[in-house]
Amino acid sequence: MSKDVVDTAGAASRTGATQSPADAGDAGYSKDLKARHVNMIAVGGAIGTGLFLGAGGRLRDAGPALAVAYLVCGIFAFFVVRALGELVLYRPSSGSFVSYAREFLGEKGAYVAGWLYFLNWSTTGIADITAIALYTHYWSLFTDVPQWVLALIALAVVLAVNLISVKIFGEMEFWFAIVKVATLVGFMLIGVFLLATQHQVGDSTPGPGLVMDHGGLLPHGMMPVVLVMQGVIFAYAALELVGVAAGETAEPQKVVPRAVNSIMWRVGLFYVGSVVLLALLLPGSAYSADESPFVTVLSGIGVPAAGDVMNLVVLTAAMSSLNSGLYSTGRILRSMAMAGSAPRFTARMNRSQVPYGGILLTCAVCVLGVGLNYLMPSQAFEIVLNVASLGVISTWVIIMVCHLVFVRRAREGLVIRPSFRLRGSPVTEIVTIAFLLAVLGLMGNDPEIGRKTLLLVPVIAVLLVAGWFTVRNRVSKTADRELSTFTG
After folding, report:
1. 33 beta partners
2. In b/e form, how buried is each residue of 144-181, taking b as 16+ CB within 10 angstroms?
3. 272 DSSP 8-state letter
4. Measured between alpha carbons, how far is 60 from 229 in angstroms, rounded to an integer?
5. Which of 9, 100, 159, 378 has the fewest CB neighbours in a 10 Å radius?
6. What 3-state class would DSSP assign to 292?
């Protein structure tokens, strides 16, 4: 037994606090994820297509102040992950925030948290396979291959990787993250060189003067910066994967604090630093939502095959996201199934200790996405992306609510907080929740897709209520059986 566990148990006996309960969904997993895997999963969660592809259109709309939007959203994203990190050290669980919702909010809370997260990743998975197909069409070799065929192939490859073992998943994410980090570091070195030498980029001379000559930090006013917050928040989606991965690492007490703390400087360096460089190298009007901003800059200085290289990187980022989505929902669904709030088959594990039932269920929804690519190839991406954003925001709000209840119980002496903590409770959680709900409300300013997405909220609520009445008897029986086993 480790010193940390002994200390916690001793403190619990002295203060009367209860030890953290076990989650039945955590049984049977291997502990094959290494520190480098978890660290790179944290990096991979923080860097994705939201930066490589989405920053171009946002720079055009919001101007250089986009860097401030990334910083603000990054700070709140860090608060969420820090809160989750504290809960992980209190009790590591592959069920992650669903397991914590069960403990602090009850079975209804766990049910809502789990299915909203499933909504997030299943729709994100559809967006990912759509993006992979679109990126693959960039090369003439694949132009004649139907979009839905490419989407199906991508899904089959990532599914196979996930079903083999968690170690293979970790290795795949490790190398995906290496590609993304190496690309960003390479671009930033080139950008700093261009600034230092005042090298011409297209028709522009880099530097602060370029920003001032094109309307300053807010060329279109403050409102466009506010409106892009929704897309910026979505760019940080998947940071919560650190909490899920912690359930399959041998030393979460050592690995998780390092991974969580590193997120802040990575956000500052890669997101904010990259956007600042992009704004100093070219005016916002030079960027486009249809092209990676990095390609725009590199093409402006005549770098050969810049488009091919960056297309490969964003393709890697989309594959990484799909890989992470299948991994995380498999673990979350197993935790729910063991409590009775998800189909029983999602609790099943294969010989490699992989919860294949939940992975296959997510994959089945993604297959519907293949059909969407067949029916509406030009609209598939935008439709599912906005639905996924609802899942991201709701997941983060639930994590903060769980942490609020956790801290309150700690003050009552019922549980013990680890030394690794989110500071400023309860103000930090309340401000973060208010910010996330405000971002959700901003979707109403988009008459095309945002308002239609918000109209789905009552539909999703009705489906959740109907689903709860379907499973509540099974949940109650499962809870009674576990209680009788414990007392017996």
Report:
1. 249
2. eeebbebbbbbbeebbebbbebbebbbbbbbebbebbb
3. I
4. 14
5. 378
6. coil
Read off the DSSP letter of residue 18.
P
Q: What pLDDT is attached to residue 277? A: 92
CA dist 332 and 450 (Å) reads 28
Q: How far apart are CA 480 and CA 265, in angstroms?
A: 46
DSSP state of 352: T
Contacts 24+ apart (CB under 8 A), 431-439: 432/76, 432/79, 432/80, 432/396, 432/400, 433/397, 433/400, 433/401, 435/76, 436/76, 436/233, 436/393, 436/396, 436/397, 436/400, 437/393, 437/397, 439/229, 439/230, 439/233, 439/393
State the Cα–Cα distance between residues 422 and 136, nearest whole angstrom: 42
Whether residue 129 is contained in a domain is answered as yes
Check which CATH number belongs to the domain holding 109 and give it. 1.20.1740.10
Q: How many CB atoms lie within 10 A of CB 444?
A: 12
d(CA 289, CA 9): 54
Is 476 contained in some domain?
no
Give pLDDT, residue 325: 83
| Domain region containing 358 | 30-468
**Per-residue confidence (pLDDT) for residue 383, from 0 to 100:** 61
State phi, psi for 21 to the nearest 5 degrees. -75, 155
Give the integer Cα–Cα distance in Å for 392 and 45: 13
- State the 10-residue block means of pLDDT for the chain, 488 residues long: 38 45 61 76 70 82 90 91 92 84 90 89 80 81 83 86 83 85 88 89 84 84 82 80 78 83 78 90 85 84 82 84 84 87 87 87 82 63 69 91 95 92 94 93 72 81 90 76 48
Based on the structure, what is the number of domains in the chain? 1
Considering only CA atoms, which of 282, 211, 229, 239 is closest in space to residue 38? 239
The pLDDT value recorded for residue 150 is 85
Q: Tell me 65's DSSP state.
A: G
Does residue 77 fall inside a structural domain? yes
**5: burial class by Cβ within 10 Å (0-12, 13-18, 19+)?**
exposed
C-alpha triplet 395, 56, 434: angle, nearest 5°:
30
User: Per residue in 10-19, pLDDT tens?
Assistant: 344 334 454 4
- pLDDT of amino acid 20: 53
Six token digits for residue 196: 């230092």
Q: Which of 103, 140, 423, 419 is nearest to 307 (CA)?
A: 140
Angle at 245 between CA 257 and CA 424, to 5 degrees: 40
Report the alpha-carbon distance of residue 158 to residue 324 in Å, rounded. Answer: 9
Query: Quick one: DSSP state of residue 444?
Result: G
Give the residue among 411, 449, 297 at the shortest CA–CA distance from 17. 411
pTM of the model: 0.86
The reply to whether 199 falls in a domain is yes
